[in-house]
Write a structure and sequence with these properties.
99 residues, mainly alpha, 59% helix
Length: 99
């Protein structure tokens, strides 16, 4: 007899589109700007750990002049904190840069 967790795994594997939809939303349409750290549809809060990853990612994107992706991530951040002064300054800077 299979364990409950094995039954659940089998159920999930039988319908992978449910997991893909929970994580990515419209997973069938490619999004080159998607970032799993911040853009996943199942993120419920902006934890300190998530913040650390995001700020590290923002720094790297600035260094690489990846303004389009930076703008996309900054836009996602407004869902969590639209009062962050650093994010506001980065958004202003990114808006002034060509994509």
């Amino acid at each position: 007899m299979l364990s409950t967790s094995q039954n659940l795994c089998d159920e999930v594997l039988a319908q992978p589109e449910l997991i893909l939809s929970a994580l990515y939303g419209d997973w069938q349409t490619p999004d080159p700007l998607f970032d799993t750290i911040l853009c996943a549809k199942n993120i419920r809060s902006f934890s300190l750990l998530t913040q650390c990853f995001v700020y590290s990612r923002l720094y790297k994107l600035c260094l690489m002049s990846e303004w389009g992706k930076l703008k996309h991530i900054l836009n996602q951040l407004t869902f969590f904190d639209n009062n962050d002064e650093l994010i506001k300054k980065l958004t202003d800077k990114a808006e002034s840069m060509p994509t």
